[in-house]
Automatic annotation (TrEMBL):
Domain Transposase IS200-like intervals: 18-138
Tree of life domain: Bacteria
Protein name in the entry: Putative transposase
GO BP, one annotated term: DNA transposition
Length: 142
């Protein structure tokens, strides 16, 4: 008897697409001010998890330090990363500013919570060198 094939839970299926897209995102606070404590990071994760769900994405991992946060997001191909990032930063900024006004005003970052820049890196199941070698070894039709 052959072993039963188990589908990969990371591979999602749509009407006309099979995909497995992950992005590593890093957002830095304005002026790299040390704003976050544990409670604020927990609330930021909750907000960002909700935003991801509204895009049909999943926040797989979240962590941070006083001046930045890291996210690992599993997202569908219809989602533009720039739109997701704008929403994540915009919504979290509004909620965190409203809920932690005193703390944010004491630190003094002005009217903007996040730095305008961010890091976005694609994450694949295999290292790029393996994918490159796989593509190089494909036979061209003759």
């Amino acid at each position: 008897m052959s072993p039963r094939w188990e589908p990969d839970p990371d591979v999602r299926r749509g009407n006309h697409v099979v995909h497995n897209l992950h992005a590593h995102l890093v957002f830095v606070t304005r002026y790299r001010r040390e704003i976050f404590d544990d409670a604020m990071l927990t609330r930021c994760e909750e907000i960002m998890r909700d935003v991801c769900e509204s895009f049909g994405a999943e926040l797989r991992e979240f962590n941070g330090e006083g001046d930045h946060v890291h996210l690992l997001v599993h997202y569908p191909p219809k989602v533009a990363i720039s739109k997701l990032v704008n929403s994540l930063k915009g919504v979290s900024s509004r909620y965190l500013r409203a809920e932690y006004t005193g703390r944010i005003n004491r630190i003094g970052i002005g009217p903007v919570f996040w730095s305008p820049s961010y890091f976005a890196g694609s994450c694949a199941g295999a290292p790029l060198s393996i994918v490159k070698k796989y593509i190089e070894n494909q036979k061209r039709p003759t």
